[in-house]
Design goal:
It contains 2 helices and 20 strands. By secondary structure, the chain is mainly β. It has one domain: Jelly Rolls (Sandwich). The strands form 3 sheets. Strands 1, 4, 6, 11, 12, 13, 16, 17 and 20 form a 9-stranded mixed β-sheet that branches. Strand 2 and strand 3 form a beta hairpin. The longest helix is centred in the N-terminal third of the chain and has 9 residues.
Length: 259
């Protein structure tokens, strides 16, 4: 089963309202790129491959545990220490159980959603619409916010972008939640995630495929959750990198395996 990578970048948050909606058809995943020679995370790159396939290779060494989030359950991270941020990024791997309208990730004024089978991000009144997704596939997702613009990436390729015209420095609020949040016309996320991380710098595809254990504070990493401690429902989850703490709500749980 294939995985895709999603990255969200947290560098300097300034959330506001208004925002320009950049309209367009759902994007297709990136075209093949040439990556010849060298190694990345112990994987030799020697053939023409798609970014998603490269992501899978780089991800494979660390896929021993992941987080399952059923509908109406969630994973909460206390992000009060990030108050006032106007530049940031968020990354995670995710796999949807289905593609009905749902909210994948949300905070005070930020939401990552699926609407009509298409992934989109809303931040302080601005909306960026991007990649069409399917159930049962792994995606790497990354969101990057910087200088009044948000961009989000799927499998390392730019998927959607929008200008933020209002204030967004309180976009993160007190809590960042994966799953469990139901909005009009949708429900909470149902699926699996892995390797959630927050950074205080804009996302770059080069940094996005580097394991958290390799990143240094100068790389802007704030916190990373790899879920490899095998936490059970209701337990606190201490970040594998950084000081932040999360909590598994309802039936959210860590399982062994990589599917």
């Amino acid at each position: 089963m294939r995985r895709a990578l999603v990255v969200v970048s947290l560098a300097t948050l300034t959330f506001g309202c208004g925002g320009e909606f950049i309209e367009g058809p759902p994007t297709v995943l990136p075209t093949p790129v040439e990556k010849v020679g060298g190694t990345a995370d112990g994987v030799t790159i020697s053939k023409r491959i798609r970014p998603a396939e490269l992501a899978l290779q780089l991800k494979r060494p660390d896929r021993n545990r992941l987080l399952v989030i059923p509908e109406d359950s969630r994973f909460d991270v206390d992000v009060r220490s990030l108050a006032g941020a106007t530049t940031f990024s968020i990354e995670m791997w995710l796999r949807l159980d289905d593609t009905v309208d749902q909210t994948i990730l949300s905070s005070h004024d930020l939401a990552v959603m699926v609407r009509d089978g298409v992934m989109r991000v809303q931040l302080a009144g601005a909306t960026a619409r991007g990649t069409r997704v399917v159930a049962g596939e792994w995606y790497h997702f990354a969101l990057s916010v910087d200088r009044g613009e948000m961009r989000f990436f799927v499998n390392g390729g730019l998927s959607g972008l929008a200008e933020i015209t209002g204030a967004y420095d309180d976009a993160m609020g007190r809590m960042l939640s994966v799953g469990g949040v139901t909005e009009a016309g949708g429900r909470g996320f149902s699926g699996r995630i892995d390797n959630l991380r927050l950074l205080a710098v804009p996302y770059t595809s080069a940094r996005g495929f580097i394991p958290s254990t390799v990143l240094a504070p100068r790389d802007g990493i704030v916190a990373a959750f790899d879920f490899n401690a095998g936490e059970a429902p209701g337990e606190r989850v201490v970040a594998s990198t950084g000081p932040l703490v999360g909590e598994l709500i309802n039936q959210a749980r860590v399982i062994n395996g990589n599917i």
